[in-house]
Protein: PLC-like phosphodiesterase
Organism: Russula ochroleuca
Amino acid sequence: LPDTTPLYSLCLPGKSSSCMAFYGWPISQCQSATTPLSVQLTDGIRVLDIRLAIKNGHLVAYHGQYPQRATFQTILGNLHAFLTSPSSARETIVVSIKQEDYDTQSPEAFSNLVREEIEAGPGGINMWFLENRVPTLGEVRGKVIMFSRFGGDGAAWEGGLEGMGIHPTNWPDSANEVFSWTCKDVLVRTQDWYSIPSFLYIPEKTQLSMEPLLPPPADVTQPVLSISYFSASSFPLATPAVVSTGFGWPSIGFGIEGVNSRIAHFLVAALKENTMLRAWTLMDFYDKPVGSGVVPLLIECNFKGNPRDAHSVIVSDPTRS
């Protein structure tokens, strides 16, 4: 892909609760033990959703109330190793950082510690793109793009709030519709409906997840970045594994097809029609079901691009209930 390519025009596969949601079954485990961060990056994951909390003066990966037994320093080491490897030194990684201990730690304390640990970690501050705008690919090869979903006044960062990377201005909790905010001149369409009532809402969640991938309405004239979370959960009837991979034998009418394979059906249909699909996407259990191939299909979307009849694909896709 050319260095002049804006990142808002790419389709990037991502992993929700990336580091490392192996623990807290059934509600907080969101990935297989066989897909640690190093494997995720090798598999093509380029958007990471990192949830952190302060423990004993250090940042540790958390998902909700469950510690995930990985320190932020370990995560930084994985990122640095990947971006300095000869085979992947021209790659870029978007890293969303979210505070999980906001009930016990102030946003300022969390923000300060994120900055301190980045400076002290592998690659240091120079490994990061920290401007509050969507860059071109050439600007960020070999770098991590900060996507700051944490608060504070930005005092710890050079440039204040403008030096904390891409910084969302609007993020309603579990909105069951696509919402928008702006990052400089870019309109950001976002879908993050994560608290679905039960597995019966998997078809509706899938439909909403697919919407941001399609081209925006014709009356939208500014550049658009779309972000879509394919992940969702609630206890006890919609655990992350059930939502993402389904259960039973849906192909013969016994069980429910999960979001991942439904998305795969949609992508296959869209690619056949040469439809333009673009978004930063985040999912649970990205390697399941075996053979669904969601990540390779998302990568392939970068090399397709005919917006004509784009919205017809969603109708023809059988997101079966």
